[in-house]
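Quick sanity check, Cell division protein ZapA:
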Amino acid sequence: MHSFQLNVLGMDISFRTDADSARIERAQDFVEKQYERLKNQGGQFGREKLLTLLVLGVADDLLQTQQQLDGVETRLANLLELIEKTD
């Protein structure tokens, strides 16, 4: 397990994870870019509201991706069943 100490959006955080440093850097970069995008679009929103919007956006993206993955897995299972029937 790796230990990390980061400054994300002006907040110092420390944590341990099995993720490698490249993955953590990509995640940090993603969060900071999304936050800046929201900040530029959000007018006078405060930090808490921007962070809430960021979390909701990421959660929505995750849920959509999971739904797409479920659809792909279902299609693959159906194709596998069809292949097994034709053998």
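Posting the structure with no commentary besides this: The chain has a mean pLDDT of 95.
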